[in-house]
Amino acid sequence: MKKIGVLFGKERSFPMAFVERVNSKNMEGIVAEPVRIDKVVQGDNSGYAVIIDRISQDVPFYRAFLKNAALCGTAVINNPFWWSADEKFFNNCLATKIGVPVPKTVILPSRDHPDDTTDQSFANLAYPLDWESIFHYVGFPAYMKPFAGGGWKNVYKLHDADDFYQKHAETGQLVMLLQEEIVFEEYYRCYCIGGKYVRIMPYEPRNPHHLRYVASFTPSPERLQQMEQIVLRINHYLGYDFNTVELALRNGIPYAIDFCNPAPDAEKSSVGEDNFNWVVETAANYAIERALMHQDGADNLTWGEYLKRGATKQQLI
């Protein structure tokens, strides 16, 4: 029997619907359930062929459990090793190398010293930074947000340099991004599952949270194809099995705004019934596909093109 598990936190609608949908297909030799952990011993198999991870970004214990499970052959969605290494600034840097338009973005050192550091820990960092060049490159208005994490936490819209200095002083030890504002005509949030299934959803981030998926944008077939190709390219390079990409259209050009969302919102109350049904059905089918492909004791993870190409170069040296 091959088990498919879902590891989750406070959310309920997606995990429970996912388990029910997989089991309703009555696939011989496959069963889905919420992951059950009663002990984690080094090198011990988790008992799951596939685990969909919805929570380890917030629970280090779960991340360690998933890495051990992956080493023992579990196909973890998403790859916990890559997810641990990834963050939003790297995503933007990679996008500039693979032909995906992104807003002008810089990374900033934390306003306050990290714990257990002093002025001497930053001997290589110029003080002050070249703020004039930074502000000229990004421009105002701009957005400032953490370089890692999500959920619209600690996001600021900044109107000028004085506004920046005031808001940056509130960010403490957070490492922040300063990013060009893309004044968009249309905006889309796009699920990508398995590196091949894409759901492009009109999205209005200026609406209240519960109304953000209530948007009337109607892209042409050509625009849909263009956005789908961008979404697939990003996820092929990053190696995510389950992710969302946010695209803002300015002057007809789709800019990738945020595409490091490996545990994307899938709550029925926020994404709406049609989108919810699509993500549940597609995730269930993909998890079954991965379970059928699973090889005991092998590396069953997905690795992105960025890492695979780097590994290939090392083999050639």
How would you portray this structure in words?
This protein is of the alpha/beta class. Among the domains are: 2-78 and 285-296, Rossmann fold; 104-180, Dna Ligase, domain 1, CATH 3.30.1490. It contains ten helices and twelve strands. The strands form three sheets. It has a four-stranded parallel β-sheet, with helices on both faces. The longest helix is centred in the C-terminal third of the chain and has 21 residues, at 273-293. The termini are far apart.
Topology (elements, then pairings):
Elements: E1 2-7, H1 13-24, E2 30-34, E3 50-53, H2 60-71, E4 75-77, H3 80-85, H4 88-97, E5 105-108, H5 131-138, E6 142-146, E7 156-158, H6 161-168, E8 176-180, E9 186-193, E10 197-202, H7 221-238, E11 242-250, E12 253-258, H8 268-271, H9 273-293, H10 305-316
Helix pairs in contact: 1-9
Task: Report the CATH architecture of the domain at 2-78 and 285-296.
Answer: 3-Layer(aba) Sandwich
Assembly annotation:
single chain
Distance between the termini: 42 Å
Total beta strands: 12
| Structural class label | alpha/beta
- Output mean pLDDT: 95
> Regions with pLDDT < 50 over 5+ consecutive residues?
none
Which CATH class of the domain at 2-78 and 285-296?
A: Alpha Beta
Q: Could you spell the SSE succession in H and E letters?
A: EHEEHEHHEHEEHEEEHEEHHH
Kindly list the characteristics that best describe this protein:
Dna Ligase, domain 1, alpha/beta, Rossmann fold, 20% strand, single chain
